[in-house]
Amino acid sequence: MNPKKKYYENAAETLIDRFSKRGIEAYYAENSEEAKKTALRFVTPGSSVSWGGSMTLEEIGLISALKNSDCTVLDRTVPKTPQEMKEFYSKVAVCDYYFMSTNAMTLQGELVNIDGNGNRVASLIFGPENVIIVAGMNKLCPDLDSAIARARNTAAPMNTVRLNRDTPCTQIGRCADCMRPECICNQFVVTRRSGIPGRIKIILVGETLGY
């Protein structure tokens, strides 16, 4: 086993214990394929599923697998008009399983997320019966300050480039604390525990995934 993989395993073992103390179930997957299989095992056939914007879920093939499953799929790319979006998110709010990643996580077991519209963090906080997070171990940070810095200076600038947003970070590669109309850093959410034990589950993946 190479040193990086061994480090990821050791760190994940610590994280699993610390997440557990915060009411969050944590699991470790050595690679993307294992992570996808683990995520799908949580899903009850015939249940309703949806997801937030996530390169991690795309990279491991989970979104494609969900679309081809026997679940009722609430696909965020389908609604186009404001009314359709409103109706769509009202259904997501009561779905059985909501999938997402996280912008950063701390060694103490905290989650840090930045959101533009707020729909992703809203579902994390309240609504869907189960929230399944998939996160590469590259998103691990030593403490809350460094996790917030990672979300602002790594995840957000990469996402603005992906979304072709007109913000300073697309040009300089780091947060400029902007107030631009196209800013995606409108909501900062720190999740320190799950109020409903086991509602939030996180699959830690021993790979570099997402932003």
UniProtKB/TrEMBL annotation:
Residues 13-205 form the LUD domain. Pfam families: LUD_dom. Signal peptide: none annotated. InterPro entries: LUD_dom (IPR003741), UCP020269 (IPR009501). This is Lactate utilization protein. It comes from Candidatus Onthocola gallistercoris.
